[in-house]
Amino acid sequence: MINIILLGLAACSSLTYAAPVSPDPADVASFLTRRAAVDACPGYTASNVVENGDTLTADLTLSGDACNAYSDDIKDLKLLVEYQTSKYQHLYFAHAY
C-alpha cells in the first residue's frame, strides 16, 4: 500500500511542471527558472512510517538545504494518509511543531 502512496505523491509532484499559459517569453523564462530550482530541491525523507488498517502516518524531514522554490520550505512535516476507497486516498500534511 505504501507503494501506491509514494506513486501518488510522485504523480502530484509532476503537476508542478504544467506549462504556463501565457505566450509572453518573460513568463516562460520565469517558469523554466522556477522548474530548475524545483528539480534541485532535496525532497523529504519519511521516518516513523506506521500503516494501520486504512491509514498511514509518517514523519517527513527535509532531506537537505531548503530551496524555497515556491515559498519557505518547512523542515518537518507530519503526513496522514487515509485510504477511503481503492481509487481515492486523502493526503494530509501538517507542521510537525
If you had to describe this structure to a student in words, what would you say it looks like?
The protein has 97 residues and is α+β, with helices and mostly antiparallel strands. The chain has one domain. It has helices at 2-14, 25-39, and strands spanning 44-52, 55-62, 76-83, 89-95. Strands 1-2-3-4 form a four-stranded antiparallel beta sheet, with no helix packed on it. Residues 10-20 have low confidence and may be disordered.
Number of helices: 2
Structural class: alpha+beta
Strand order of the largest sheet: 1-2-3-4
Radius of gyration: 16 Å
Number of strands: 4
Catalogue the unreliable spans: 10-20
Instruction: Give the percentage of residues in beta strands.
Output: 25-35%
Shape: extended
Element-by-element helix/strand order: HHEEEE
Largest sheet: 4 strands, antiparallel
- Quaternary status of these chains? single chain
User: Average pLDDT, to the nearest integer?
Assistant: 77
Number of domains: 1
Intertermini distance? 27 Å
| Relative helix content | 25-40%
What order do the helices and strands come in, and which of them pair?
Elements: H1 2-14, H2 25-39, E1 44-52, E2 55-62, E3 76-83, E4 89-95
Antiparallel strand pairs: 1-2, 2-3, 3-4
